Automatic annotation (TrEMBL):
Residue ranges constituting the Spore germination protein N-terminal domain according to the UniProt record: 25-196
Similarity comment: family membership: Belongs to the GerABKC lipoprotein family.
Recorded topology in the membrane: Lipid-anchor
Name by which UniProt lists this protein: Ger(X)C family spore germination protein
Limits of the Spore germination GerAC-like C-terminal domain: 208-372
Cellular localization per UniProt: Membrane
InterPro entries given in the database record: GerAC_N (IPR057336), Spore_GerAC-like (IPR008844), Spore_GerAC-like_C (IPR046953), Spore_GerAC_C_sf (IPR038501)
Lineage: Bacteria, Bacillati, Bacillota, Bacilli, Bacillales
Length: 381
């Protein structure tokens, strides 16, 4: 009696096992690598979708290589409608789980709220939170027509450029969908995205930041020097090189490879004002020596002081710039929201003006670990 019962139970279990119930076959999908969003004269969103072409990199007759990707352009009032129009031109359904990067033109970012433009990709289950998001100067779709240097598609190439630029140079930020969603929840309404621009592609493709206020692009004034200073102040400096001018008007510069950099922020408040102190500790090694010679104790102290003075000047320049624009790029408002919620509730309506009048104090500690050679002087002397 037990055997028929066990057999029946096994049959029931087999029916309960999950299987592949998706009605789409592999040949029904087209895998997205990147998208570019632009505006159009009629006020609609122009969506250029960059698809990976399976087998496109294989050899054809004559030993030539076929294209590994192609672009489809659609236009509609909303992003989702433009996406649903893709099968009309392609004959396949777009699949978003392999998407690498989203490019949004700066002109579109000034007229449309970027929160709305990215809403579909944050809600849909297919796009991953790790998709990189950047602002592109000019027409965003033009960047998707370029050929990649080493990656299979330009979408993957741009994504790797964004990640490496932030990690290895600290002249920009690497922002993905998850990070952007967190920035959109900022109490000050400030968000920052990498700024992609072309001066003979790739040129200096990623060494700026685009600043958003309440979801709209308000400025692209953050050049590479400002970004380095901003990243230092926000304690987000990962790795990079600092160029330190020599004394006098020679125009020469020496380079320091930063091996360790940490910044601590301390905020104090009274009844009507706020003061912020930054303590920055930097360790680094000389990479190029052009005007420093014989680093004995006195000479080393002079070099350290020259580095400290220069960095303080650059940091203060970035702080003044953010205060002039009344843009809290340093996250002071978010700190107050977390640590002084009652005070922040009172200050939030007029925070931009209060931030512009805030006092900032900088304390920088520099340590030169080594000069890279036994003799600390220019090798050609």
């Amino acid at each position: 009696m037990k055997r028929p019962f066990v057999f029946a139970l096994c049959i029931c279990c087999l029916f309960s096992l999950s299987g592949c119930w998706n009605k789409f076959e592999l040949t029904d999908w087209a895998f997205v690598q990147a998208i570019a969003m632009d505006g159009s004269p009629d006020g609609k969103v122009q969506l250029t979708t960059h698809f990976y072409k399976p087998g496109g990199g294989g050899s054809l007759e004559g030993g030539q290589q076929g294209p590994s990707a192609f672009n489809i352009t659609t236009k509609a009032d909303t992003v989702f409608e433009a996406i649903r129009d893709i099968p009309l031109r392609l004959g396949r359904k777009a699949q978003w789980s392999h998407m690498r990067i989203i490019l949004i033109s700066d002109q579109l970012g000034k007229t449309r709220n970027i929160k709305e433009l990215t809403d579909f990709f944050m809600r849909d289950h297919e796009p991953r939170d790790t998709v990189t998001v950047v602002i592109a100067k000019g027409t965003a779709k033009d960047y998707l027509t370029e050929k990649p240097f080493i990656e299979s598609t330009i979408g993957q190439q741009l994504r790797e450029m964004s990640r490496s630029a932030a990690r290895l140079s600290s002249k920009t930020k690497d922002v993905d969908m998850l990070n952007l969603a967190i920035q959109f929840k900022s109490q000050t309404g400030i968000a920052m995205l990498p700024y992609l621009y072309s001066n003979g592609f790739p040129g200096e493709a990623l060494s700026k930041l685009a600043v958003l206020k309440d979801g709209k692009l308000v400025n692209d004034f953050m050049n590479s020097a400002n970004v380095e200073s901003l990243v230092i102040l926000r304690d987000e400096f990962d790795f990079g090189i600092l160029e330190i001018p020599c004394s006098g008007d020679s125009g020469k510069k020496e380079t320091i490879e930063v091996t360790s950099l940490h910044t601590k922020k301390r905020v104090t408040t009274d009844a009507e004002s706020v003061s912020v102190r930054f303590d920055t500790k930097i360790k680094g090694s000389f990479s190029e020596i052009r005007c420093t010679s014989a680093l004995n104790t006195d000479a080393e102290n002079q070099v350290v002081e020259r580095i400290r003075v220069y960095l303080e000047k650059e940091l203060r320049k970035t702080i003044r710039l953010s205060q002039q624009k009344k843009l809290d790029l340093l996250g002071i408002g978010d700190w107050l929201y977390r640590h002084r919620p009652e005070l922040w509730k009172k200050w939030k309506p007029g925070w931009d003006n209060r931030y512009a009048k805030a006092d900032f104090d900088l304390h920088i500690d520099v340590e030169v670990v080594n000069s890279g050679v036994l003799i600390s002087k220019p090798y050609y002397e």
